Amino acid sequence: MSITAEKLAADDRFFEAVLLCANEMLAIYRESPRIASIFAAQQRWLMAHAGFALHYGYPDGITKGLYSGRFVEFVVTNKIASRNTAATFMQEMLAYRFLRPASSQSDRRARLLEPTETAEQHFLKWLLAHLFILDGLDGGKRLERASADLSTIGKIQPLIAKAIIETDAVRDPGRTFNLFNWANSGGLVMDYLMSRLPGFDRSKERMALGPVSLGEIRAQFMISNTHLKRLLSQAAAIGSIGWEEPPRKGDLWLSRGFILEYWNYQAAKFAIIDAAAEAVLGPA
């Protein structure tokens, strides 16, 4: 039986997995900053999953195939983005060479597209990192099985995408999480802040990270000074982050509520990935 989000959210051991996941996502970003930064906001991340799922075969009984019209309608129907935003995203992916015309054009009514090797490798790293972390929790063999037959990735991903799109705990984890994750590069900044946590005591209102350099964050994640300061100021205004000494001096702290939003999001996401992996690979 797959692990439930409720079980993960209640398991203090999962916090170590949360920190490991944050660091793994940062490592993937550092390896491929251009493609990772494109998907470092919630809306683009959801659209990327939608595109992969349509290509591999979204589990709705419809023949698999990714083309612009179908993608745009899917994104709009599932309230991920507007029609114009979805169409622009497709054009950007083609321009960045993360999408290309499909090598086997079986549908003459539409221009079929497919992910390039660069895009597929990026998703593969993302998925295998999550399977590795799940295996660390229960001693399972998900990573080994998926790595032995990479064709299973195309079966697992549509199940993940469908569940993510249909799960409020992933799409709307909370006010502060949404603030970061809907901003350009905001998800990376949030991962970075969480990766700095020395631990998590649920009884404390705040957890100190120590001194945090805004210059280092800007340099790592290609985010402007104005954008970063606005993002952190908005989070501070709702009491989710703060500094021991004003203005922005001393140790940076994160609120318990913000950390729990991140924790619960990760629990919901990992439960989805585990269920999809079990459906394709069998019990862990």
Automatic annotation (TrEMBL):
Record-given protein name: Uncharacterized protein
Lineage of producing organism: Bacteria, Pseudomonadati, Pseudomonadota, Alphaproteobacteria, Hyphomicrobiales
